[in-house]
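re: the backbone from monday

yeah here it is again, tokenized this time
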């Protein structure tokens, strides 16, 4: 019996049929839409568990539609993009998609992303009951309030970036391997997907005001991992 309901938004009819077929084989219930406008109408009526959203859509594009899905409907969204330049555009925006995947992709990779985002959206992240705000130099992270400030100024982080920063903060002063970060933030099935981590580290550095060319707050150790540095 199908479990989670996924709304698939893509203006390519062949892509919609192919993805819907593979998702249904994996035991998901699937609705489809060819435009963001139709997708939003469908989501308001049926409230799916997850949206797979193409960026390049006719009319309202996926970047604009994401705001509606997140702010109005509070739905998790995975961006689906066909061109690297579209991904670069996403990297420059603080839109907070829950995940992304680039075309062409392997079905198993897509299903792993879907499973991970659904798991994160439906099961609250467990934090120790005794957890308190972490203060690291000018950086303060409150896991209970889910807030971050830098120099007293609030920084708005979507859940995945917050979790990444929190893991680095918990290991303050120690280098955390790429594999460990992927497993702790995304899940064991993403331990080989280093590109996902690289992209989110870049987003995180931008939002924390770190220099992308010579970062001082999140330090890279080539071939090993990352360390959060107190400033």
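seq for it, each position gets an aa:
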């Amino acid at each position: 019996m199908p479990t989670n309901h996924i709304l698939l938004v893509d203006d390519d009819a062949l892509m919609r049929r192919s993805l819907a077929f593979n998702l249904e084989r994996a035991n998901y219930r699937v609705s489809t839409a060819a435009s963001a406008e139709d997708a939003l109408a469908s989501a308001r009526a049926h409230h799916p568990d997850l949206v797979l959203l193409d960026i390049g859509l006719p009319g309202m594009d996926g970047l604009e539609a994401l705001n509606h899905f997140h702010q109005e409907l509070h739905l998790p969204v995975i961006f689906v993009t066909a061109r690297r330049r579209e991904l670069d555009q996403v990297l420059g925006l603080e839109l907070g998609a829950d995940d992304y995947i680039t075309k062409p992709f392997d079905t198993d990779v897509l299903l792993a992303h879907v499973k991970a985002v659904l798991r994160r959206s439906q099961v609250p992240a467990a934090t120790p009951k005794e957890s308190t705000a972490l203060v690291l130099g000018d950086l303060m992270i409150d896991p209970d309030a889910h807030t971050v400030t830098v120099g007293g100024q609030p920084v708005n982080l979507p859940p995945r970036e917050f979790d990444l920063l929190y893991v680095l903060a918990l290991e303050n002063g120690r280098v955390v391997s790429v594999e460990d970060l992927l497993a702790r933030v995304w899940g064991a099935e993403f331990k080989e997907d280093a590109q996902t981590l690289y992209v989110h580290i870049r987003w995180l550095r931008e939002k924390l005001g770190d220099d992308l060319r010579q970062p001082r707050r999140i330090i890279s150790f080539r071939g090993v991992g990352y360390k959060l540095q107190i400033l």
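The longest strand covers residues 5-9. The first helix runs from residue 13 to 25.
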